Amino acid sequence: MSRIDATLATARARLRRLEAAEVPEALRRGAVLVDIRPAAQRAAEGEVPAALVVERNVLEWRCDPTSDARLPQAVGDDVQWVVLCSQGYTSSLAAASLLDLGLHRAADVVGGYQALAQTGVLADLS
Q1: In 100-115, which positions are buried (b, 16+ CB within 10 angstroms) versus exposed (e)?
Q2: CA–CA gap between residue 42 and residue 28 (Å, rounded)
Q3: Would you list the domain boundaries of the chain?
Q4: With a threshold of 0.90, does the pTM exceed it?
Q5: pLDDT tens string 40-66
Q6: Where's the Rhodanese domain (predicted)?
Q7: Does domain 3-125 have CATH number 3.40.250.10?
Q8: Could you tell me which residues come within 8 angstroms of residue 76 by beta carbon, excluding any fewer than 6 positions away?
Q9: How far apart are CA 54 and CA 90, in angstroms?
Q10: Is the dihedral of CA 11, 116, 39, 67 positive or negative?
């Protein structure tokens, strides 16, 4: 197993990972969906209307409730941040990083944007 595969497995073992079908209910309960895909990828694949767009390189600063650069939604450690990337790999590492900050409800989406699109969940997120 490569080091990155081992790192990914360790990250995922710590996370609550949501299946695509679980995302709409999580949002109804107050979760914040964060799309970390780069602009070019969002342009090629499509946007997620219900998601906040936060580039991966600033995610921790935007979600940390103690950061001067935080988003208005970053009101405490109990916010459920649901991180979304294209296929569910980068989002696992990003969500684990949020856990390291003490954001204990951080999660990601199994299969990422592609799973939302393939299962038809995107229509529920408009």
Answers
A1: ebebebbbbbbbbbeb
A2: 24
A3: 3-125
A4: yes
A5: 999 999 999 999 999 999 999 999 999
A6: 27-125
A7: yes
A8: 65
A9: 13
A10: negative
